[in-house]
């Protein structure tokens, strides 16, 4: 054996040429090849000796924003706020720094997408001009770090992270390498100095945060700012939160003078009218931990077209189609010759199965031209055989309905949660019981199928 090593077995040694001399064995580990230990700068201490108040949250002054963050901004944390262009991210952050400055704290707003004059004009419109708010239009990371050393703020806003360039790092602005380098440097700044950093991020056409997936792992909090251009409602949804729940939702309304929080958004999703009308049913949907009362409106119209139209807004088209199939199978009404239009009020989006019962009752009410009993809420998932199934957080939904003045609620049979008092609760096992409990008396029989 000549001692020559090969990565796999061979019949003949390529070094000495001898046959059958190669033997299998583990590679020898050189002495001292492992990582050497380094003395820590500070010794590890028992967790009982750690001061929990050191990571206490500081309220921003905006209750809905604090609700999603988990009581406020934690010093040294990094928050990523992502949303579509024009949804109001910059306006919300200007509102945040306004309250931050009025509390006697210093905030530094760094803009890389607009000039300082443009931000000043928006700040005047939203009354966010304050001497404790510092403004800088920069895209170079090193210069931004220099501004932080000079101003020494307690809150740093970077709008946006895709426009900042780290000198010495390969890649173009907004690329994967640049975003990772910029975010890593800002995270290191936050942890070493204790300044809270808020990064504004872009989204892709699919609604996901633009950039590498590691960007969401580096930061402490990831928030999604959602909104429809055709409505004034804006929602902040928690995606990741190391300091609080990740399923909270904050509601805001975009106005000409800025963005305002909406403490009770249920009024936006419920239409106020003098009397009951056919095809309108109220429901309570859960958006994260928040119970929202909404309204579903349905319209069915007989047509002679070979392919009747189906139009759905704010709901899942598949669940509406399923309710039509269940209604036809269980003998309530046939929809093969009916145009069907179903929509939510106020731009509300509901995709959870708990809206099934409200969708069915709205369709049935419109077809029979019989309004639902005033003050009624419908909650429940509908199975393919017509049974009404239980849903989560029923008691919280009923409590929200009671708070808004509703007097009657339909819930699935077998719900074992303790319901609040002061509101009539009817448990229904199937669609037949639900239709009898919800719809008003019909003076004339509906048209034959």
Automatic annotation (TrEMBL):
<dbReference type="GO" id="GO:0140664">
    <property type="term" value="F:ATP-dependent DNA damage sensor activity"/>
</dbReference>
<feature type="short sequence motif" description="RadA KNRFG motif">
    <location>
        <begin position="240"/>
        <end position="244"/>
    </location>
</feature>
<keyword id="KW-0479">Metal-binding</keyword>
<dbReference type="GO" id="GO:0016787">
    <property type="term" value="F:hydrolase activity"/>
</dbReference>
<dbReference type="InterPro" id="IPR004504">
    <property type="entry name" value="DNA_repair_RadA"/>
</dbReference>
<dbReference type="InterPro" id="IPR020568">
    <property type="entry name" value="Ribosomal_Su5_D2-typ_SF"/>
</dbReference>
<dbReference type="InterPro" id="IPR003593">
    <property type="entry name" value="AAA+_ATPase"/>
</dbReference>
<keyword id="KW-0547">Nucleotide-binding</keyword>
<dbReference type="GO" id="GO:0008270">
    <property type="term" value="F:zinc ion binding"/>
</dbReference>
<keyword id="KW-0346">Stress response</keyword>
<dbReference type="GO" id="GO:0005524">
    <property type="term" value="F:ATP binding"/>
</dbReference>
<dbReference type="InterPro" id="IPR041166">
    <property type="entry name" value="Rubredoxin_2"/>
</dbReference>
<keyword id="KW-0234">DNA repair</keyword>
<feature type="region of interest" description="Lon-protease-like">
    <location>
        <begin position="339"/>
        <end position="449"/>
    </location>
</feature>
<comment type="function">
    <text>DNA-dependent ATPase involved in processing of recombination intermediates, plays a role in repairing DNA breaks. Stimulates the branch migration of RecA-mediated strand transfer reactions, allowing the 3' invading strand to extend heteroduplex DNA faster. Binds ssDNA in the presence of ADP but not other nucleotides, has ATPase activity that is stimulated by ssDNA and various branched DNA structures, but inhibited by SSB. Does not have RecA's homology-searching function.</text>
</comment>
<dbReference type="Pfam" id="PF13481">
    <property type="entry name" value="AAA_25"/>
</dbReference>
<dbReference type="GO" id="GO:0005829">
    <property type="term" value="C:cytosol"/>
</dbReference>
<dbReference type="GO" id="GO:0003684">
    <property type="term" value="F:damaged DNA binding"/>
</dbReference>
<keyword id="KW-0863">Zinc-finger</keyword>
<feature type="binding site">
    <location>
        <begin position="83"/>
        <end position="90"/>
    </location>
    <ligand>
        <name>ATP</name>
    </ligand>
</feature>
<comment type="function">
    <text>Plays a role in repairing double-strand DNA breaks, probably involving stabilizing or processing branched DNA or blocked replication forks.</text>
</comment>
<dbReference type="InterPro" id="IPR027417">
    <property type="entry name" value="P-loop_NTPase"/>
</dbReference>
<keyword id="KW-0378">Hydrolase</keyword>
<keyword id="KW-0238">DNA-binding</keyword>
<dbReference type="InterPro" id="IPR014721">
    <property type="entry name" value="Ribsml_uS5_D2-typ_fold_subgr"/>
</dbReference>
<keyword id="KW-0862">Zinc</keyword>
<dbReference type="InterPro" id="IPR020588">
    <property type="entry name" value="RecA_ATP-bd"/>
</dbReference>
<keyword id="KW-0067">ATP-binding</keyword>
<feature type="domain" description="RecA family profile 1">
    <location>
        <begin position="54"/>
        <end position="203"/>
    </location>
</feature>
<dbReference type="Pfam" id="PF18073">
    <property type="entry name" value="Zn_ribbon_LapB"/>
</dbReference>
<comment type="similarity">
    <text>Belongs to the RecA family. RadA subfamily.</text>
</comment>
<keyword id="KW-0227">DNA damage</keyword>
<dbReference type="Pfam" id="PF13541">
    <property type="entry name" value="ChlI"/>
</dbReference>
<dbReference type="GO" id="GO:0000725">
    <property type="term" value="P:recombinational repair"/>
</dbReference>
<protein>
    <recommendedName>
        <fullName>DNA repair protein RadA</fullName>
    </recommendedName>
</protein>
